[in-house]
């Protein structure tokens, strides 16, 4: 049973999504050259807890911010000490979001008692969140639901406060980030366990809908050349090679449980040396210049669409799951809203997020256009 809890906290873990420390994510230029200049990974860090930007204004349904605004927020991510969006880590293996509890979307309750009303969808202050909010908005609008958006609200503590106050009643979220926010002591990493942990910890009156297979999480990434050379598919495959490899990551990875210590304790890997990221040394640049042979890159980084790199499967689930999921007030979670957003979650993949982020942050296309094209391509609107 849920206990009555408030979203707002005087202190708390770094917000799942973008963090104050670590992951600098500047996305620059076009094509592979742009990817080489990326400072971190894709459109978001699910563990965001930084204290950022001003509330975004209400827009018409689906009228999301354009590419420039989205692009400027892209780098707001850090990978943070709380563990990139996750409760102490990134994501569970391959993003295989279980269909069980996620499919139900119910907060452990029985009949749907939603009263309806306008759905007001907020977003955090980075492009991926804005894309997801706009996708939700356009899908709902296509089904005749009264919907508006408030984009670029800020970090988790800001937008969850807005959710509690009723300024918005829905937000795209990440399961591991939310679990770290509500239960930072949780050791859950598998998608279903993380989802259920969040669902049981939410304040009264709020629920998660179905989670997507799409995840924005930490990964250990190598170049395709390195993967082919040593036939690497999983992090475990690095055994026997790690001693020859420089590992690159945000500075806090040297002490984070899901960083260097975790790779040693969970996988038995000891790397030759550790190379911290910097403004002039992004993970992709370090990899492609062979300064590092393995690096922490978030799984929805546009670099995966631009550069010859590959994320190794987290076969021992060291990184907690970071599945994309709608967090919504039960008051507006009508059957129509649920079924529409469940269909979106069914269709959305991590590869989709990579391409969506690339379209906005690299190709500089407007969020509204990119989101609308995706909804149409999936026959959702």
TrEMBL record:
<dbReference type="InterPro" id="IPR007210">
    <property type="entry name" value="ABC_Gly_betaine_transp_sub-bd"/>
</dbReference>
<dbReference type="GO" id="GO:0022857">
    <property type="term" value="F:transmembrane transporter activity"/>
</dbReference>
<dbReference type="GO" id="GO:0043190">
    <property type="term" value="C:ATP-binding cassette (ABC) transporter complex"/>
</dbReference>
<feature type="region of interest" description="Disordered">
    <location>
        <begin position="41"/>
        <end position="69"/>
    </location>
</feature>
<feature type="compositionally biased region" description="Low complexity">
    <location>
        <begin position="53"/>
        <end position="63"/>
    </location>
</feature>
<protein>
    <submittedName>
        <fullName>ABC transporter substrate-binding protein</fullName>
    </submittedName>
</protein>
<dbReference type="Pfam" id="PF04069">
    <property type="entry name" value="OpuAC"/>
</dbReference>
<feature type="region of interest" description="Disordered">
    <location>
        <begin position="1"/>
        <end position="20"/>
    </location>
</feature>
<feature type="domain" description="ABC-type glycine betaine transport system substrate-binding">
    <location>
        <begin position="118"/>
        <end position="376"/>
    </location>
</feature>
